[in-house]
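Q: Predict the assembly, please.
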Amino acid sequence: MTERLAGNVPKALSAPVSQGYSIDARKLTTRLLNASIKSGVSKGRYITILNPDARHNLAVGIVKRCSLSFAGSVGYYCCAFCDGISATIEGNSGWGLGDNLMSGSIVIREDAGASVGASMRGGQILVWGNAGARAGISMKGGTLVIAGNSGFLTGFMMQRGRIIVMGGVGDAAGDSMYEGIVYVGGEIGSLGVDAKTESATRSEEVELRAFLKALKFRDDILPRRFRKIVSAKRLYQYDSLEPLERERLVI
Amino acid sequence: MIVSDEVSRREGWTNEVFQDLQVKADLGRYRIRGFSTFQRIAHFDDIIFIPRYISGRGVELRPADVSTETVLGTRYARNAISISTPVYITGMSYGALSRSAKTALAKGAAKVGTATCTGDGGMLTEERKYSTTMIYQVNASRYGVTPQDMISGDAVEVVVGQGAKPATGGLLMGQKVSAIIAKKRELPPGIDQRSPTRHPDWLGPDDLGIFIEMLREVTDWRVPVQVKIPACRVKDDVKLAAKAGADGIVIDGMQAGTGASSEVVLDHSGIPTLPGIVLAREALEELGLLKKVYLVASGGIRNGIDAAKAIALGADAVAIGQAAIIALNCNRELPGITDFVREVGVPAGYCTKCHTGKCPVGITTQDPLLEKRLAIDEAAVRVANLLSSMTLEMKLITCALGKRNVHDLTVDDLSALNVEASMMAKVPMVGSGGTLLKSAGRGK
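A: Predicted assembly structure:
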């Protein structure tokens, strides 16, 4: 999938950096590695992490603008709880890539595990391969782009933002979402509770195509049409007041 | 006379049951309310302390001689929490509670040198400003969660669930989802918000272990990470959380309070606080982690004696929610200001209408006019007074038992007044000289 799509894979947006250097992850514990990354980041340096070896919890809790590159695959929660990070992962990721991202940009060249962009509140995550289950779960803002397919429960309990899946999505897509939009270029396995599909409007199509072309997606691999999954809003009100409460509590 | 005879024979078919059925026939759904379970279950009143006389140490102590200093989180964290009393304010969300209520709780706790906890709605700047020790909650919903706020905390709490409503997420009814709350939680205003029950990014114990390490990395291993577990399958859950690397466990029994829950789970799920504490203590003992992993008990703790009993059963600290809310004037008629019957349809003392957002005393509301009824500084003093009273009560009972430190209380100091409590707390039934169930250890 990646090979087919990645005609011109963009680097993550670059923050101002003075000079770059690399850290060999194999020589450090996770604690020391993260401390080294944070220390380098505070000096405004571009950091390449060599041999990440699918280790968990790399580059988490960074709340400064910075540029990072992982020369390989990463484990769970890479770049979680970050604000302003700009990262490229030259491999696959485990669960929770970009978890709770506040702002910034994460690009992953291969596949992302489950819960990519979980509860992200801003910024952008671009997955050049496929994404596992629960992509964009509890998402609260920002944009998650998946060039390949996305697993079941994509956009589960999504609150805001948009997910763009150029391939298909698995079962229970958009389950219990409040707001936000999941654009799907391929097949939809099934819809989740309180989700419905609509056709993307002409202006949405135009905007989406321009957005994806800016990310260096070639014209010939863009889906012919996008459908969107949105909330049917049937769960918005439980009618929580009982008859007596309603009588008493009318303002 | 005939009528009362018939009523007395109705057993399970009481007037309350009739009304319940009629309301549900009107509604077509389960009922929702605030507060906590109304089930009659064994609780702290069913166990008592047994002081020693000739058989024990004849030390004459004053309450002032008793220490209540409490240190939590020495397993992995660089900076353990140090609080003056083992009682702190549990997590209650900004949203369920008003900004004024949250601020008053923070100020009140700080006055006595104890901790507060944020809740399922993010952190308020006032909360951080006024709390001397603030525990930052990471809930399944992640409402308002930011790395900056988390890093500013003095501890992190991963909420697996709540004792009041195990296996269900929080509810915040549309009446309380004001424009400000909606913005904070990134939701449409006025909707009935339902928090998820599972975290978005971890599911099982192995994931939890990685997740806890992630929180430690985010906070640079500076602060303790505790895991809040509703009392259900206590031994399994506590062992898994401790093994996953938690510094502390909060065990939340079924008597815990809530701003809104379905009555079904409030009254019919989870286990009481008494066995919750005992099973959690036993789980840590079996792992050899007692006193390495701290244990906080919560769920229906109303006074210093409840807190002391929880500590004697094995807790290192207790967290209060409902009790602190009552100190803020919950269910109290304020002459010239409130009229409970007119405003919520029940007299003060019987109100469980937290979920409606019409709290007459400005605690569980987002209505600015109602919120004004809560005078923050006065309320903070009342919270501080309650915490001081509870601490004094603990000191008094501790010195009555001939001990100098509240943390020296043990299960040996306790007996049960009835068979149920004896079996749940695994302490001897008074006068029987033994207990039907033997505890795995003495707790200290």
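Chain A touches chain B through 52 residues (CB under 8 Å). Helices of chain A lie at 2-5, 30-42, 202-214, 243-249.
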